[in-house]
Amino acid sequence: MRILFLGDVMGRTGRDAVVAALPGLRRDLKIDVAVVNAENASHGFGLAPDMAEAIFAAGADAITLGNHSWDRKEIIPYIAQQKRLIRPMNYPPGTPGEGAVDITLADGRRVLILQAMGRLFMDAMDCPFRATETILARARLGVTHAAILVDFHGEATSEKMAFAHAFDGAVSAVLGTHTHCPTADHQVLPGGTAFMADVGMCGDYDSVIGMGKAPAIARFTRKMPGERLHPADGEATICGAVIETGADGKALRIDPLRLGGRLSPMMPSV
């Protein structure tokens, strides 16, 4: 199985780039499942239902969110009925939406997609390790599911690495989001789980993690409220990863993907 995962979609330039490129990426890379993190798609803060629909129409099988899940209030009723849109599973009980989605492919194979959110330097949350253990108690890689993918939305690379090693062999991949900076640590762990601490963002890299430079710099230099942050609107780089799994659901390889914009290009082979 070949899985495409695209990192945080940032503002209009990121949305437009992903919607334009996703159909071709699915075709050219022979993708079976495509997942997109879109928690920053609406002006950098949250996701609106019409934006989610456009990403689904372009070929996403599932969309993940993160700490900006509720910045657009319209998403609350939408997430209740759109099961392929998921938020971190370790939000407190009673939070709208679900933290996992079970997808059945045309050939009958089942794919489980989860999202967990870290707790280091992030909002107070329930334990992501315990929440994942609860879900995996009823999902077995290579038995009930052909692949299990986790989007770990977090700030600290140490927490992301610890999480990946904790579930090495139990899931196909643990892919980090949130920092908007692609890391160079993509690897298959000893137990067969693909890992990358952060796959990067889909947005303009002539920026401060996707935001316009001047207001972002002012927040550091003046230490006082100023102009509202807004997404940079130059050409986007699409960043993500492609994972190939075997019959047992474990990863055979993981390759970074970078397309367009300012970063050096990298296109996985088929």
TrEMBL record:
- Which residues participate in Fe cation 2 binding? E39, N67, H153, H178
- Record-listed Fe cation 1 binding positions: D8, E39, N40, H180
Instruction: Name the coiled-coil region(s).
Output: none
Keyword set, alphabetical order: Metal-binding
Q: Which Pfam families match?
A: YmdB
Q: Which GO molecular function, any one, fits this protein according to its record?
A: 2',3'-cyclic-nucleotide 3'-phosphodiesterase activity
- Source superkingdom: Bacteria
Q: Where is the active site?
A: H68 (proton donor)
| PANTHER family named among the record's database cross-references | 2',3'-CYCLIC-NUCLEOTIDE 2'-PHOSPHODIESTERASE
This protein is called what? Metallophosphoesterase
Give the originating organism: Acidiphilium rubrum
